[in-house]
Specification:
Elements (H helix, E strand, L loop, with lengths): L3 E4 L3 E4 L3 E4 L4 H8 L10 E4 L4 E5 L5 E6 L10 H16 L4 H18 L1
Antiparallel strand pairs: 1-2, 2-3, 4-5, 5-6
Length: 116
Amino acid sequence: MIKINMIPLHGIDIENIGHIALGQSQTELIHLLGQPAEHSDAVQLYYDQYELRIDLNQNKSIEFIEFINGPYPEKLNFLFMVLIHFKLMRTILSNCSQKKIMVMLILTKLIIVLLF
């Protein structure tokens, strides 16, 4: 399994590969991950082995990172995605009222129940 750590609003770390950051250049990306899949184009780069689609802006810098198979990856460890959700929630909740926190926790439990 490939282990990827998402850092919300910053980028991702791919174990034994390195850090891919939002705003990073296409040249740096290709240096880390190699050439994208054949079905890539000038603004959307696909890396099937990592189940990633990376969108570039007009300056050829990374603008968006997406996991192609969403919450059901074939090659990645799903657990890390659940942990990322909780880390992101913790960040969001740090600026919320207690009432909003309770609502978000209930929604989080509902999402986990639906996924499993």
